[in-house]
Write a structure and sequence with these properties.
Layout: E1 5-8, E2 14-20, E3 26-30, H1 41-47, E4 52-56, H2 73-86, E5 92-97, H3 99-111, E6 115-121, H4 128-144, H5 146-155, H6 164-175, H7 179-190, H8 195-200, E7 206-210, H9 218-223, E8 226-230, H10 238-241, H11 243-257
Parallel strand pairs: 3-4, 3-5, 5-6, 6-7, 7-8
Antiparallel strand pairs: 1-2, 2-4
Length: 258
């Protein structure tokens, strides 16, 4: 897939992205760990008639460059900021899936008033300490048997309802992400500011659209000022596996944020 545009992040890494639609209201889509911008194609088609939509490949993912030493959440956020600067976006809602939900918090912290709102997709579920414990275990498992662990991680994002064709496409893309990026991003998550604490310190509306039945600490999320919505699917890729409900909830959030 050839990107519509590309720019360079603050450290010189090439960032690939697509643009669809026009207008002063911009919606920016940020993928998750080892994913890519193609996962937002359905949302780009749905929302581009009303908004300018931008889908980004974060550094090290998809068709963006991978010549970076540390894969931190603030660095990924600077990738997003570089695209917004390139496109001269004054104000946007940022939508982030999974790890992209953490990245969008840093985008809001870095850009302040240029961010009108944040919408998470199956993300921002638990306090930072529990998340760190999970990340540490993942790194240990990867050091013991990298390929098997990577395969196991990818398999956990699907449910029995996930179509086999979708499973194959997503798996192929996730496993194509370079190993240093995969491990580096997990390490970046461990050293990052606890996401719910970061969210609580932001003066911007935040809504998360999560999978039905997913493990969410509703008290902690609510205390961070985050509104929770749920789709019908139990799969991690909520925007692909239940696009009808996800797009409806996203549309409602956008109406309230712009």
């Amino acid at each position: 897939m050839t990107p519509t545009q590309s720019t360079t992040s603050t450290d010189g890494v090439k960032i690939a992205y697509d643009v669809q639609g026009e207008g002063p209201k911009t919606v920016v889509f940020v993928h998750g760990w080892t994913c890519n911008r193609s996962h937002w194609q359905g949302q780009m088609r749905t929302f581009s008639p009303r908004y300018r939509t931008i889908a980004i490949d974060l550094g090290g993912h998809g068709e963006s460059g991978s010549d970076r030493l540390e894969w931190t959440m603030p660095a990924f956020a600077r990738d997003v900021a570089a695209v917004l600067d390139q496109e001269q976006v004054d104000r946007a809602v940022v939508v982030g899936h999974s790890m992209g939900g953490i990245v969008m918090l840093h985008v809001a912290q870095q850009l302040g008033g240029r961010v009108a709102g944040l919408v998470g997709a199956d993300t921002l579920k638990i306090p930072g300490e529990k998340r760190r414990e999970g990340f540490i275990k993942l790194i240990r498992d990867m050091e013991d048997d990298y390929e098997a662990t990577a395969q196991a991680i990818v398999s956990t994002v699907f449910t029995s309802d996930t179509p086999e064709s979708l499973r194959k496409i997503i798996t192929k893309g996730m496993l194509a992400t370079p190993a240093p990026v995969r491990i580096g991003a997990i390490k970046g998550g461990i050293t990052d500011v606890p996401s719910l604490e970061l969210a609580a310190g932001l003066d911007v509306p935040i809504v998360v659209i999560n999978a039905r039945g997913s493990a969410v600490d509703t008290d902690a999320v609510g205390e961070a000022g985050i509104e929770i919505r749920f789709v019908k699917t139990t799969g991690h890729f909520v925007m692909i596996e239940d696009p009808k409900t996800f797009n409806r909830l996203l549309g409602e959030a956008l109406e309230n944020m712009f």
